[in-house]
Amino acid sequence: MSRPSRPSGPPAPGPSAAPDEEQRLRELGYRPVLARRMGGFGNFAISFSVISILSGCMTLYGFGLGAGGPAVMLWGWAGVGLFVLCVGLALAEVTSAYPTSGALYYMADRLGGRRWGWYTGWLNLLGLLGAIAGIDYGAALFTGAFLNLQWGFEPTPEKTMLIFVAILLVHAVLNLFGVRLVSVLNSISVWWHLAGVALIVGALAVVPDHHQSPSFVFTEFVNDTGWESPLYVAAIGLLLAQYTFSGYDASAHLSEETSNASVSAARGIVRAIWVSWLAGFVLLAGLTFAIQDYEATRNTETGVPPAQILLDGLGTDGASALLLVVIVAQLFCGNAEVAAASRMVFAFSRDGALPGSALWRTVSARTQTPVAAVWLSVVVACLLALPSLYSATAYGAVTAINVIGITPAYAIPVLLRLRAGDRFTPGPWSLGRWSRPVGWTAVVWVAFVTVLFCLPQSSPVTVDTMNYAAVALAVVLALATVWWFVARRSYGTPTTAAYGDDRDQAELAEGIV
Asked: Pfam families given for it (predicted)?
């Protein structure tokens, strides 16, 4: 069979035109096999749910208390959010031109070639799988804390792991029912998050008798890292915000299931970032104003400093109720991440990149959902979190896999788009003359924070305090390189695949069961 040659890019439809997304997908080389049942709000909702300020901010708040304190948390959030918005804007522009489930790696492949696509895909995939593990294990930790408050449950590592596995199973099952249910749950998640922030901040503003002063909230600097340089500590403290602002590529991964995806997916990325930026600042400020005892909050026996703030300010019953709000938000977040990761598994397998690709790219004829890819995503996430049974440090390593994989992958398509210049054909959502300044700002910022991710966060550096992000990055790149020499002949997007004469990309997309 003949295969299409690499197109220079069809004329982009005008801003007022609604592009035929099924035809656009065929032009990009893929036969539509997923159900296009998600609207623009649902696409925004999945990225907003994955960013999940009630997950990231609450989980990492304790880190922020010691790495710069209130001043770095609040001003760092404001500054980091601005730079992340630049990354999102630049990525959204490329997403509009290439709205496929493969998202980042497909963009990199088209703009830079097979190897760029290959390494971007592996960074993105392992980052997504690490995100499922980190989010759902975090939800298991918070669930254990809630059960301890309510019924004296002792959250041992073994019991926490059982809760984690149960959460993974629930998320797998929910994702098997089809993208429409996923979209509905994500839409509910948006309002749950916003109402949850309003409820938490409102309760902490009204109920406690004592609040910290504005000068404390916006200027107090705390260094409990062991490092002497305030500048270094402030830089490390930025990671609270940067860790939270990840996962917005979910909108791109759901492109093939979104109506008017060339516009909706791009808007979904940008909207998810700025809404999270504003709501997250309100949440961090509300928590910090309500701190009753700084040292007791940092060293709380609950292991969750925000839970101690709620306990001190609202009492056991109030704290338990709001902790439950946070847990449900984390569950929404994990469910959205399973959806995004499974679409990445499906797309990467469709292009022959994974071992057993023929299985992972199959799609259910009834729900038009990549069932095998969903199961693979949750199983790998479970395996990544298993070391947490033996070491609390392992949970930090899982988080490192997430951020060190996903964040550089965001900048690669943007860098290649800048390098391509006029050879890049924009989609209907474009930055116009702002494309280059915003794009270069995004690339420089990602390079900077990637270095930050790898720096040691505590001194002295020991086995328990070591930052394993650099190790995670090295392992990911090593695995990708080794597998490249095994699978490079089978891997390729429709216009670059080195398939035999009897194989065609359309046949690869047929995998419907």
From this structure: AA_permease_2
Half-sphere exposure of 182 (CA within 13 A, CB side): 39
- pLDDT tens digits for range 371-405: 999 999 999 999 988 888 877 666 666 777 777 88
Per-residue pLDDT tens digits for 330-340: 999 999 999 99
Closest CA to 179 of 49, 424, 370: 370
Residue 481 CB contacts under 8 Å (≥ 6 apart), including other chains: none
Decide: helix, strand or coil at residue 245: coil
The tally of CA atoms less than 13 A away on the side-chain side of residue 138 is: 30
For residue 261, tell me if it sits in a domain: yes
Distances (CA, A) of 374 to 78, 171, 179, 247, 346: 35, 9, 12, 17, 9
Task: Identify the pLDDT of residue 13.
Answer: 39
Number of domains comprising the chain: 1
Minimal CA–CA distance to 110: which of 493, 419, 408, 443?
Answer: 493
Task: Give the whole-angstrom CA distance, residue 357 versus residue 507.
Answer: 13
In contact, 95 and 107? CB cutoff 8 Å: yes
Element containing residue 223 per DSSP (H, E): strand 222-223
The three-class DSSP label of residue 27 is helix
Contact 6, 493 (CB under 8 A): no
Under a CB-based contact definition with an 8 Å cutoff, are residues 398 and 388 in contact? yes
Asked whether residue 511 is domain-assigned, the answer is no
Does residue 243 form part of some domain?
A: yes
* CATH number of the CATH domain containing 50: 1.20.1740.10
DSSP H or E stretch at residue 40: helix 40-51
Scan for tokens 């406690």, then name that residue.
208
Q: Maximum Cα–Cα distance for the chain, whole Å?
A: 75
Q: Which domain holds residue 208?
A: 37-485
Length of the chain: 513
User: Residue 267: inside a domain, yes or no?
Assistant: yes
